[in-house]
Write a structure and sequence with these properties.
Layout: H1 7-14, H2 20-42, H3 45-61, H4 73-92, H5 113-131, H6 135-146, H7 151-158, H8 162-182
Helix pairs in contact: 2-3, 2-4, 2-6, 3-4, 4-7, 5-8, 6-8, 7-8
Length: 188
């Protein structure tokens, strides 16, 4: 089982206890990906920080329930993150919104006012396009591009086949492409 943790720390994990050193390695290895996934799903940077902290608190408190025989560590971790996002929306009682800013830091320099307006228009078109997708499609896109999970990891997390994930991604991206092309945002 390779979970991105040094072999010296794996014994701590396999004993169902987690040392400070092992937790530090897990946190440093996964924080950015978990945060990007959460931020992509909720479109609120500050709330994403709180939720991400909660996810790692759950990792510490529930580590004894982790079973390497059932799934790999990354799948377990992102299941916790997915559940935390679901809980957030349950509390907020609002629809999912997405932000490309949480996926890619597109602004490397200070943009011109014209670029800001164009970028905002593109984001609005993307948000509208994403809203046309089903919750399942948006969730899979978030796991793939927000969290950087592989199709097989997403399939394990959702309990479906790898090929199903590939088909859903292909069709979802094709829908997005068509809508964005119709809106004049994307030209081939």
């Amino acid at each position: 089982m390779n979970i991105g943790i040094k072999s010296a720390s794996i014994s701590d994990i396999q004993d169902n206890t987690i040392s400070t050193e092992a937790f530090t390695i897990i946190y440093e290895s996964y924080y950015k990906r978990v945060f990007k996934y959460i931020c992509y799903r909720i479109h609120n940077h500050h709330a994403a920080e709180d939720i991400c902290s909660h996810v790692f608190e759950v990792v510490v408190s529930k580590y004894n329930s982790f079973s390497p025989e059932k799934s790999n560590f990354e799948v377990w971790l992102f299941a916790i993150a997915r559940n935390a996002v679901t809980d957030y929306f349950r509390v907020q009682k609002r629809r999912v919104s997405f932000s490309l800013d949480s996926i890619v830091n597109m602004v490397l320099q200070r943009p011109s006012p014209e670029d800001v307006v164009i970028q905002d228009d593109h984001h609005q078109a993307l948000f509208a396009s994403l809203a046309m997708l089903s919750d399942k499609e948006r969730h899979i896109i978030a796991m793939k591009y927000g969290a950087g999970l592989k199709n097989s990891e997403i399939a394990d997390l959702l309990g479906v086949s790898d090929s199903n994930i590939g088909v859903v991604l292909y069709r979802s991206l094709k829908k997005l492409h068509k809508v964005l092309e119709t809106e004049g945002v994307y030209d081939e």
